[in-house]
Amino acid sequence: MLSGVGAPTMTAMSAFPGMARHPDRLLPAEPGVRVIARRLYESVRDLPIISPHGHVDAGLLADNLPFPDPAALFVTPDHYVTRLLHASGVALDDLGVGRGPLPRDESRQVWRRLCENLPAFRGTAVRYWLESELAEVFGVDERPSAKTADAIYDQVVACLAMDTFRPRALFERFGIEVLATTDDPCDDLAAHAALAADPSFTGRVLPAFRPDRYLESARPGWAAAVARLGEVAGVDTGSYRGWVAAMERRRAYFARHGATSTDHSHDDVSTEPLTAGEAERVYRAALAGSATPAQSVALRRHMLLEMARMSCDDGLVMMLHPSVRRGHHGPTLAAFGPDTGHDIPVRAEFTDALRPLLERFGTHPNLRLVLFTLDETTFSRELAPLAGFYPSVYLGAPWWFLDAPDAVLRFRAAVTETAGFTRTAGFIDDARAFCSIPVRHDMSRRLDSGFLARLVAEHRLDEDEAHEVVSDLVTGRPRVVFGL
Amino acid sequence: MLSGVGAPTMTAMSAFPGMARHPDRLLPAEPGVRVIARRLYESVRDLPIISPHGHVDAGLLADNLPFPDPAALFVTPDHYVTRLLHASGVALDDLGVGRGPLPRDESRQVWRRLCENLPAFRGTAVRYWLESELAEVFGVDERPSAKTADAIYDQVVACLAMDTFRPRALFERFGIEVLATTDDPCDDLAAHAALAADPSFTGRVLPAFRPDRYLESARPGWAAAVARLGEVAGVDTGSYRGWVAAMERRRAYFARHGATSTDHSHDDVSTEPLTAGEAERVYRAALAGSATPAQSVALRRHMLLEMARMSCDDGLVMMLHPSVRRGHHGPTLAAFGPDTGHDIPVRAEFTDALRPLLERFGTHPNLRLVLFTLDETTFSRELAPLAGFYPSVYLGAPWWFLDAPDAVLRFRAAVTETAGFTRTAGFIDDARAFCSIPVRHDMSRRLDSGFLARLVAEHRLDEDEAHEVVSDLVTGRPRVVFGL
Amino acid sequence: MLSGVGAPTMTAMSAFPGMARHPDRLLPAEPGVRVIARRLYESVRDLPIISPHGHVDAGLLADNLPFPDPAALFVTPDHYVTRLLHASGVALDDLGVGRGPLPRDESRQVWRRLCENLPAFRGTAVRYWLESELAEVFGVDERPSAKTADAIYDQVVACLAMDTFRPRALFERFGIEVLATTDDPCDDLAAHAALAADPSFTGRVLPAFRPDRYLESARPGWAAAVARLGEVAGVDTGSYRGWVAAMERRRAYFARHGATSTDHSHDDVSTEPLTAGEAERVYRAALAGSATPAQSVALRRHMLLEMARMSCDDGLVMMLHPSVRRGHHGPTLAAFGPDTGHDIPVRAEFTDALRPLLERFGTHPNLRLVLFTLDETTFSRELAPLAGFYPSVYLGAPWWFLDAPDAVLRFRAAVTETAGFTRTAGFIDDARAFCSIPVRHDMSRRLDSGFLARLVAEHRLDEDEAHEVVSDLVTGRPRVVFGL
């Protein structure tokens, strides 16, 4: 995966003694199981990366400008990182959050704050990713600390100045075959079009349709947003029918630009139909500002059902990422904006919430519904049983807080016995940090290899089967599920 | 357990090279723990099977006809199997679901569909059971696949034609000591009586009292059902008092035919008393079709409490299997009937729901209440604390989706530290597929041996104690808890 | 930890062959991981005990009388023990529950009942603690059973008669540096003052402020309690303002006596502000007996928020132990009182419930909020994300039913990947049984060592880092979090 031009090779681990970039990292400790896991991992280590969902900006690759600096690359925009620094007593302001590009001195200062506070990250996935990126992408062979912060900063800066560390060069070196972005329905997808039209860039960068804010009629700015949607789509969104038509047109626009999926993240996944008349009435009330909160919720649930219907029609995969209380700390939200580390999960429920959708479309041949959760209790109780019956339902990879070694293994242990492997959607990195993409995929390959190795060692699966499974998880499932 | 006349012996594992019927299957991979686990397992491997709860039809043994064919034996009636085939894109119709006996050609076709799709079952308990049954009961030594499907089909057909593969012969070969069935309160239990009266059959086949539909007054057909109940019991069920008397009589009838338990599966386990007057009024309203949905639920909760009271009186063990949304996919339910793979669990709650019951009867010397769940969160939070105080409460074995290797180990890890082993009810196979009974019990013995071996290896239990525990789990607990 | 004067040394394990007091007990079975775990454990084994929360009576140490007898020491007052005996069919009355000091004959009888029923405790933490205490504190080298009960009883009695087994001697031998008790706001803390003033006692015994009953206005006796609170504080508690002032005064009194924390255990942790006028009105209605149940709950939620505000002002750490249904079995509660083994957990929720508190005070530099739960589902879903952002939030150690080997490892696995180690509060024994304190702390050190060893073996943490972490968990975190 990282064996591109100019990359430090992953097998030359002896070059990183202080960082414990051990070739067997994340594999099970028991020697007999580890030997099997190593064989499985080696069979998929160098397969291309397929990334059907993430948050990298297509403009990054279209413009292909050098990455600015280590703070911007590893700290400031990454709420996984700033979160735990904030908990450790570092003010978000001192990390440059919400302030755009930082002067070089301040960037170095921000980087130092991370390095000094690295002990707070011990045992977290963030720390694993960070060290892996530094070692494998930038050739750093020292553990970040107050003492090493400046030297590492300088080394990364030196790398970033090289053409081989520009986004497109890394894209190629990382072995990325497909990368999906996440985009607003009103986006003109110019960056995607530019990349597709550029003969010097051979990767696939696809948009994904993320219409959340157009479904949340109680939020400030909704009326203006749907008005703009109407303009962009060339449809009057003054009626619910117009809203539907505008959505359909923009989905078609996205599909023409290569999109294969939509993504939805609301407080819950309830899908409850309104009659055509009710939908129209509530929609207009919402536009007029006279809808009650309950009506707004009802409208969103109806709209989500409508989106599933559209997926049956146009074949776009429907991803659901529900049940997070966004912007939990109001004062931080006000000062620093969203995605600043205080989105906190709540209980999720799928069985009853999705029933109206699944009764209508659950066996539709065109529907593929990929379900994500931050509530692990739903893995064995709801998600695996649903994916184990409905041909449309796939289990998304462990997401966000759960995209970490032990959580990933809990996910596999919780769902496999009911739903097997084929009902899961393969690894999805959901990454914002571009350089974390290869290490996240590598982590996933290691963990799935370890999980399968245990099944082999316990004589629950033959090793030839495990080889087929791990390869299918890495490239087969995402290609099938996301139509790539 | 399988060492009966004519059976392939379980120790001759070298005869099944392609199937990995390894003698250490399901035991922990760590060699030191495995050695202990093996010793524990060997000490219980050949103990008789006690099956206090399942769904085998007593008529199967009374009639003792040959099993029809591999599709009927392994696929069509087994919603564990058809479920995942359906998710993999095979229509239920193409599996013969809901269509009675299949012509030989079609049966072979159904069997092929399973074999071709076996990769979808990798890592599931179903696949483990299937291979184990084929290997251990039918001597099949190849992994099912498109290529081997026909040969395996023919081999199983050839077996089924032999007298040694008729139900009673298998019953004996499997080493079944007691088998409980699940029966409607109106059932005349003729098959049970015939078996009991037959001097050539020495096994015990006992009925269990499953009155669910008589408690669900909002369901279609309830009024007719309770009318029929009245007829069978010789009591007028036009009043609630009559309903109670009819239930009591039928329970006594079941007890005279050997029953030691009742089984209840409703949306929840809430038990809330009505006054005598309210109960009577709501019951009559339900009969008249004028009860509200809320009243019907209230009536069911009162009736469940009444059932607990009856258990105190007549000593029948009360099993509760709550919190599954049955028939989640309406169109499939309409076309193929219930138990066709789309029952999906929901959250369960026991602490508050059972409080009225436990405050009344929780310390009654005659009550034994066995609690099952598909919501793993209740294991450590509610079920173990309840069973750790109330002498009447026992923890049922991991059920349905949770009757699988990793889930079983999670169950033991979740409950043992609070409730120990004696508050669990021993293994319960809940099987519909007759030939899966021995492999399910064998799986349970292996898993409990592995769990105990870890405690021994971690010096949390001495090995002599572990031997006592594993033996108690296999035969001691079920005999004590179910009065067998 | 146990290497005090006259104590059987912990390393002389060969002296306890029948008890399997193995030096590697509770460490992971895999030999490679165990070697690392042993090194980590040995580095913290002898560190002093810091106990920031528990239920030992300060008078025990102030009076320094000999412990009465084995039943009083190990059985009667310990609901962890009587609970499972009760479930096993032993009446609470036959264990002396609720009856004060027992005559010697009856005490011996109670002790025998425990020994006879020890198999019911196999695999539980209670059994581990019991055997550890007997072996390490009293030098007992036989497994308790019907056969050994009398001899062990006599051996413990003989020990208890010795001055070296009086509370203060054990306190010193156990290596306790700080011990916090749990006290009513009206307590005069005379015992604490006496200990502090006694030059012959060098340990620190600190009170903690537990005001639960003054917040539960719907409970019988509340009005009298707040009246008494007013008297003790010298403030008229006839108004809500008076209640607040009284609380503030008593907190200050506690702080002057060394308290560093408060503790709160209610049905939930909801914190919802009332206006000053509403609070006053509802409070007066509650005093007048005319508040509705909903108003009482609203008042409690407002009061809890007020308590958080006070913590910001006076710096007392706020502990929350929510979501247990206390006294689940009414008849037992009536006959034997509270804390008799039938407190049963229910679902917990933190994300929404604590939001009002955290929006107000979550980033206040003076607030430290330690959250405990009996609902494991909240570990990864809510608690780790909260502690991973809010600098005020710390994760309490696994509590009560979850303070057991497998549950502790599940806790670490569930929270570490999101919140690391520094956001956890270190071990908290919550002990009522004085002699269980050292074995509980020792258990925690073993388990954390084992958890860290696995991370090292999987190359997720370097061993030098693991050494820093385990030491920080044992003494660093509790000192920092509880200001000790």
What does this entry look like structurally?
- Chains A, B, C: Pathway: Carbohydrate metabolism; pentose and glucuronate interconversion.
- Chains A, B, C: One of its GO terms (biological process) is D-galacturonate catabolic process.
- Chains A, B, C: Keywords: Isomerase.
- Chains A, B, C: Belongs to the metallo-dependent hydrolases superfamily. Uronate isomerase family.
- Chains A, B, C: This is Uronate isomerase.
- The structure is a homotrimer of 484-residue chains.
- By secondary structure, the first copy, chain A, is mainly alpha-helical.
- Chain A has two domains: 69-162, uronate isomerase, domain 2, chain A; 170-481, TIM Barrel.
- The first copy, chain A, is 49% helix and 6% strand.
- Chain A contains 20 helices and nine strands.
- In chain A, strands 4-5-8-9 form a four-stranded parallel sheet, with helices on one face. In chain A, strands 1-2-3 form a three-stranded parallel sheet. In chain A, strands 6-7 form a two-stranded antiparallel sheet.
- In chain A, helix 17 (377-387) links the parallel strand 8 and strand 9 (393-395).
- In chain A, helix 17 runs parallel beside helix 18.
- The longest helix of chain A is centred in the middle third of the chain and has 22 residues, at 293-314.
- Chains in contact: A-B, A-C, B-C.
